[in-house]
Amino acid sequence: MGIRIKDLPEEEYFTSGHTACAGCGASMAAKIAMKVFGPNTIVYNPACCLLVFSGTYPLISWKVPYHHVLFENTGACITGIRRALIRQKKEGINVVGIAGDGGTADIGIQSLSGAAERNEDVIYIMYDNEAYMNTGIQRSGSTPYGANTTTTPVGKVRAGKLEMKKDMAQIMIAHNIPYVATASIGFPMDFLAKLEKLKNIKGCRFLQVFTPCPTGWRHDTDLTVEVAKQAFECGLWNLFEYENGKFTLNKKPKMIPVKDYIKTQGRFKHFTDTDIQKLQEFANFKTNYYNKMAECWK
Fold this sequence. Notes:
It is built from eleven helices and eight strands. The protein has an eight-stranded mixed beta sheet with strand order 2-1-3-4-6-5-7-8, with helices on both faces. The radius of gyration is 18 Å and the shape is globular. The model has no long low-confidence stretch (mean pLDDT 95). By secondary structure, the chain is α/β, with parallel strands linked by helices.
């Protein structure tokens, strides 16, 4: 039997009072994660929204040791923390790096890849809000096709991002580390179960969690969880695990039309029928791809 809500501790190790935007998916992910990791945890944050709204001097929302160095250094810094603990002969401490998609899929991928290649005993959580939200909503490698951002603006020259979303989980699976998974704040029980599992695994562990951003995506603040659910149900987000060489799909989407997912988001309001069809084809491709992967591992 998996983890149950009633079994979670009442203590908060990521507290209220931070300055996140209303409906922020990243703050939800951090709160849930710290319920599982608990007090025996050291957290590292690079430059990102989470750093700014939870660690603004002189106040901080983290009730565990907390570090911040540079944008690109998450993999290196959590490696250093773990090595220091080994040198001090300290055991039973979770070393967790939490970074956004820009700081993971783009700027931070080199140090993350190094930590994964060495199979460092660390946990890396990528909260995926699909753009560089903290610095002005610029596109990242994780931004979906067609999205309107400040660096992929809609106008006479172009109409949003021209490229499809980078698949970071697949990149991490290629490193052959013990555990890779995807999660979503739209499915908290699945998220909790994966956090509990990876906490008890040794070696390099990577979890990519889908965290909508009302400010950057331009949807109503009370729709964050619903938008996360729709991203999965249309096939643009997938829930799976790769554990010790075995790939498992945790849940299959209903495959609602992509247009139902994007209609509440201002970043897609310029979409033509051609744009919708292109994104629908990508959702179909991704879903079929992961279904075939799951079949291969049966």
